[in-house]
Amino acid sequence: EPEVTQTPSHQVTQMGQEVILRCVPISNHLYFYWYRQILGQKVEFLVSFYNNEISEKSEIFDDQFSVERPDGSNFTLKIRSTKLEDSAMYFCATKERSNQPQHFGDGTRLSIL
Amino acid sequence: AQKVTQAQTEISVVEKEDVTLDCVYETRDTTYYLFWYKQPPSGELVFLIRRNSFDEQNEISGRYSWNFQKSTSSFNFTITASQVVDSAVYFCALSEEKNYGQNFVFGPGTRLSVLP
Fold first, then answer.
1. % of chain B with per-residue pLDDT over 70
2. A102–B contact, CB cutoff 8 A
């Protein structure tokens, strides 16, 4: 069964550095999402992306964050000038059509030192 | 606004006991979807079920069953004859229909510990 693939599985970065988290969607999927889960807490919506633009974003998704599909396949989340509180598990999710369920990747665990 | 409540923060049961995880949701939409996900210690989210707002039929899948009641805005999840491998955090989630697809609102999760 096709899967959403996220790389790396674990990223360790110094505070203040930029980090890029990558997601390879299932091939015919058109809707893309990023979620964040701080350790021990619930999964929170960050941003949704459709037709090469952000369709919705949460309050968490401030100017520090950006998303893009640089080559039409990978879907990336960039965090500029990382902070300690950015340490979390980041999940990518994709889906084929509006009324279809989202498929989640296995997540990237981001640790900011 | 959407909201999902999972009142049970942690539950411990002994193997072979039945356990029910509660989920109560709030939404103003008439079209929405409800989900359950399992998050084992390894961290990934494992999809268990999706139910749309027009389908109130209860579902059974092996040892798992779900009870959807619109009248009480609840979507409860029961594990029958629990096993140690069921130990995980379980998230209930709600998704509303929007122009560009939906995003999810997750509940806070219930940590289930099944003891041998």
1. 94
2. yes
